[in-house]
Design goal:
By secondary structure, the protein is mostly helical. The protein is 68% helix and 0% strand. The longest helix is centred in the C-terminal third of the chain and has 29 residues, at 239-267.
Length: 331
């Protein structure tokens, strides 16, 4: 279960259990209430019940079409409703493989695709402190960040657990959105940047479409290499958080390295001097640079880091170790 590190605000009075199956339809009906407070309450209650230790409660909600009801409410005009709904869907797909497949079949991808431009505009306003961004309260900003984290986390889980959803995720053209988080570290919650990095790492793993899309996105590899190789801190970002982001950046680059070298070979095929050394050197040096960052990560307490980030980092380290064992680039 990838619990969002940003967390979610508690909703007063949200139920955590039901005494009879008749209560469920009445609860879900409130998702369509004219009263926004009712919709927030119903979404938060659904989230609580989906996480119930009694699997029968989750099955009861699923039998009452909770997935479709929650996806429908992703179009709500009230940000707090969307936050609670996306939080519930994130929790659901993370703990229930069957539900994850149902969420995919019911086209959550279209609902997410419709939300991302709105969230991206809000994040841009916050970063640039534009008129629209400046008028948002701290709570309103946190809702933007938490909702974005939920959406990315949902896609990340589906990417890993529902293989046939990958084609739809590829078609969403998410690479520019995801890589943008690496360019504004320090201006967003570190956990949100890490979630974007974890998803991009998973998305580019053995995914030719995503690899070539990332390579074709202007400035993307330069941004990632700059992070891996930086010798400086970033204001408002702890050393631990920055180290995690740097490892994720290195892991993403390691995923796309074979495609990048193949692309360079094709580009300079037939040139008398071959591929310029300056083009190849960053890729040749990647293994060594990543090992140096990993070494610095090992020096601090992994348990103090967010569980999800630590798990992602361990995955990168394991993949890198396997590559080394197979004879790739000695450090």
């Amino acid at each position: 279960d990838r619990a969002t590190p940003l967390g979610h605000p508690a909703v007063a009075g949200a139920v955590t259990t039901v005494k009879s199956k008749e209560e469920v339809p009445a609860l879900l009906k409130k998702l369509k209430s004219d009263d926004a407070n009712d919709r927030v309450w119903a979404a938060a209650s659904s989230s609580n019940l989906l996480m119930s230790e009694d699997p029968a409660v989750r099955r009861l909600l699923l039998a009452n079409n909770v997935v479709s009801e929650l996806i429908e409410r992703m179009t709500d005009s009230v940000p707090d409703v969307i936050l609670q709904v996306t939080g519930a869907l994130h929790k659901l797909v993370a703990i229930d493989q069957g539900a994850a497949e149902e969420v995919s079949r019911k086209n959550i991808f279209g609902a997410i695709q419709a939300l991302i431009p709105r969230l991206a505009m809000s994040i841009d306003g916050i970063i640039k402190n534009s008129d629209d961004g400046a008028k948002l309260t701290v709570d309103e900003r946190n809702i933007v960040f938490q909702t974005t984290d939920n959406l990315i986390s949902i896609l990340w889980v589906l990417c890993e657990t529902v293989p046939w959803s990958l084609k739809q995720i590829n078609n969403m053209a998410l690479i520019p959105f995801l890589i943008s988080f690496f360019k504004v570290i320090g201006k967003l919650p570190a956990s949100l940047v890490q979630t974007a990095g974890q998803f991009l790492y998973t998305l580019t793993d053995a995914n030719t479409h995503a690899q070539h899309t990332l390579l074709g996105h202007s400035g993307a590899t330069q941004t990632l290499f700059a992070l891996v190789n930086t010798q400086h801190g970033i204001d408002e970002v702890s050393v631990d958080d920055l180290t995690i982001v740097r490892i994720l950046a290195g892991g993403i680059l390691a995923n796309i390295k074979p495609a990048a070298l193949s692309q360079l070979e094709k580009t300079y095929r037939g040139h008398a001097d071959g591929t310029p050394e300056a083009e190849v050197k960053p890729w040749d040096d990647l293994s060594r640079a990543l090992l140096q960052v990993i070494s610095s990560f090992i020096q601090f307490d992994v348990d103090a880091a967010a569980e999800t980030a630590a798990a992602a980092v361990k995955s990168v380290i394991a993949a890198h170790a396997e590559s080394e064992a197979n004879g790739a680039e000695p450090p």
